[in-house]
Amino acid sequence: MSAELLINVTPSETRVALIENGSLQEVHIERQAKRGIVGNIYLGKVIRVLPGMQAAFVDINLDKAAFLHASDINSKLILKEETDQVPDIRSLVHEGQHIMVQVVKDPLGSKGARLTTDITIASRYLVLMPNSQHAGISLRIENPNERDRLKDIVTPYCDEQQGFIVRTAGEGADELDLQHDAEFLRRVWHKVLARKQRKQTNLPLYQDLSLSFRVLRDFVGINLERIRIDSNLTFQELTVFTEEFVPELTPLLEYYPGELPIFDLFSVEREIQRALHRKIELKSGGYLIIDQTEAMTTIDINTGAFVGHRNLADTIFSTNIEATQVIARQLRLRNLGGIIIVDFIDMHNDDHKRRVLHSLDMAMSKDKVKYSLHGFSALGLVEMTRQRTRESLEHVLCGECPLCTGRGHLKTVETVCFEVLREIVRVNRAHDADKFTVYASTAVSNSLVNDEYHNLAEVEVFIGKLIKVQAEPMYNQEQFDVVMM
Prior knowledge:
alpha+beta; Nucleotidyltransferase, domain 5; CATH 2.40.50.140; Aminopeptidase; 6-stranded mixed beta sheet; 31% helix; globular; tRNA processing
């Protein structure tokens, strides 16, 4: 399988596309304005100790001093003794002291960042814990055999200077992937210590990687052919980064100066737009309907215009098989997670069901995100889950529709017209008016004076008053006002 990364960089946004066999499989997007400082490590200076609050203010070269509470200080490192109680803040830090801290909460309003001295650095599968010696496993990994397997792999990486925790995403990871992560984290930590020795206070000792760097870290071990970047500055920065931390990727980096925008290669822009649509066409003439809701994602398969086989059963089976490949790709591309319900076209042949389920499982096996797949339910639905790793593509690129407020549909013109007529009658009963003016959208106004003219006239006769209709082009289809004159 051939694979490559396309990295598109602008001052305000970075986008990364994973291409496999000439087809877009994943899109990652990061906007500069939404990047925080949580996870950044600083060599800060204590500027004030507050015994009454059991806290200290620390200067980490931001606009506001950061806040460090006594409970967030690893007293065992400072006092060199075992204790389960929180010592007095004055025994832990003093004014003018330089201390290595990590941000756990971004500045908010008038409040500065919240800090801790319990440093952790995360990678794709592991979390490095300096000054800890044990190997831990995420509690969300419940299978005892898997926990034992992971602990056996990670324990040799731990020593007196550092320990590791296997993240939930590490479930099922092979030994080579875990080894890559451990080696990467060790190199990062050595760089942090070197910067600390130089007393680097004007810049972070470590900051969470931006998207272009992070994807290179996370794609270590994946068989990439090349990595094309359309920013020369980013290309040079990534070259320095890979030479230090992931040298096996350096030969794959390639600056792309082409006149054609990099995301027009492999039709990436077009595929991103298609991934925002509910309806996905199948090559055979069938189609999928994908609906993402708060609770779950539902996928409905339809034969559409596909009549390519001699009997209906074979037509349905072929459409369902084709749909399994498209479903697996769309879940990755849209980054849909949580509960997913797939409504395949009904099949009465048990062998067909088994083969469709196997085809979906094989297609999903290419996905590096953890998933679980269940068989057909009594209602003929396939239930599955996919781990949530980041916001879905729709949530990153789209917001709630101001017209339908998230319903996904607008009331028809006919429905709004009837609402207007009912509102006129209601207002007439509650208030004494000589006549009424209706302000509504152009479509509703036109319908009231044309298609619904007889109904409007009947209301005029019923209330015995004149009704005038005024079009308001700025009104949306559901918006109207009934004004007493």
